[in-house]
Design a protein that fits this description.
Largest sheet: 5 strands, mixed
Oligomer: single chain
Distance between the termini: 57 Å
CATH architecture of the largest domain: 3-Layer(aba) Sandwich
Number of domains: 3
CATH class of the largest domain: Alpha Beta
Shape: globular
């Protein structure tokens, strides 16, 4: 608080706490000083600047990459454990603080210990001896982990081009029900972000990232994200090769599980803000407007078609 006050950033305390607090040094609660100082520096120059993952640029985050990749290896990280952590829960593990460098990645147990000692995980309690309840300390680290989850998802998509084509073809041929089923299949294999403490836009960004990961592998499709059009920025806009068809996608997260209501909001938003305007200006006559609402590992897709 004193540091924020010194730099005239008192009103940013809750944001800084959410993003950069949560570390433990003995029995003391600790903020990451690198993050806080960089946050203050950015906000002195621009008060409207959004919080950033400052720590992500200080290392290669190799330990996170190894950790998440191990989810597909036998007797390694389980999908349930990773999902529990990402959604604000704790995982109880035995921590060894006396490892050599060669031992850091030699087993999943040592990997948990490495994550703890490097700050990617922290303890919310010490249950017995060397056993700790481990949690993700703050929003910055959660963002770093979810980014790596999406990266792994995109790498795996490359291996299933047939399914990518089936999903994209369903969108192009106006088969919303088929696209809905295929996207639901993708979501079942993903780590879901349902933490009640995670803000709705963050959840929407996660599903947005999944969609971009799928659509980005479709040949001859020009896929843009957050492109300015009309009175706002569309989530996803697609120009389909040399055809006269364009696709606009708006993604919503249904906190209450009412997928249909969120789809209707998304379609209204596409119309009210004129998201299709940029496609019209490019000479595209047929616009397919898709609303995709997600809740945990389920989704609903609704379509409105517009012709010149």
């Amino acid at each position: 608080k004193e540091l924020l006050h010194y730099y005239g950033q008192d009103t940013h305390y809750e944001t800084v706490k959410e993003w950069y607090d949560g570390y433990r040094f003995g029995n003391v609660d600790v903020y990451c000083p690198w993050d806080v100082i960089n946050y203050c520096s950015d906000h002195i120059a621009n008060q409207e600047c959004a919080p950033k993952n400052y720590w992500v640029n200080t290392s290669g985050n190799d330990v996170i990459h190894r950790f998440i990749n191990s989810i597909y290896e036998p007797q390694k990280l389980t999908k349930l454990e990773l999902e529990h952590l990402v959604n604000g829960g704790s995982v109880q593990k035995e921590i060894s603080q006396e490892m050599t460098y060669k031992e850091l990645y030699s087993s999943i147990d040592n990997l948990w210990s490495t994550l703890f000692m490097t700050g990617y995980l922290t303890s919310c309690s010490n249950t017995d001896g060397n056993r700790y309840d481990l949690v993700i300390p703050n929003r910055e680290i959660r963002n770093i982990i979810t980014e790596h989850i999406l990266k792994l998802f995109k790498e795996n998509i490359k291996q299933d081009g047939q399914k990518v084509n089936a999903f994209c073809d369903a969108l192009l041929t106006e088969k919303a029900d088929v696209a809905e089923k295929l996207f639901s299949d993708y979501m079942q294999k993903m780590i879901s972000v349902r933490d009640t403490f995670v803000q709705k836009p963050t959840k929407e960004n996660f599903y947005h990232g999944i969609l971009l990961g799928i659509l980005g592998f479709k040949e001859n499709w020009l896929v843009t994200s957050n492109r300015e059009s009309g009175d706002g920025f569309s989530d996803i806009m697609i120009q389909v090769g040399d055809s006269e068809v364009g696709i606009v996608i708006e993604v919503k997260y249904a906190n209450d599980g009412n997928l249909e209501a969120e789809c209707k909001k998304a379609l209204k938003q596409i119309d009210d803000t004129g998201y299709a305007e940029a496609l019209h200006q490019d000479g595209i006559c047929k616009i397919l407007k898709y609303a995709i609402a997600c809740y945990k590992k389920t989704c609903k897709i609704m379509l409105e078609a517009e012709k010149c």
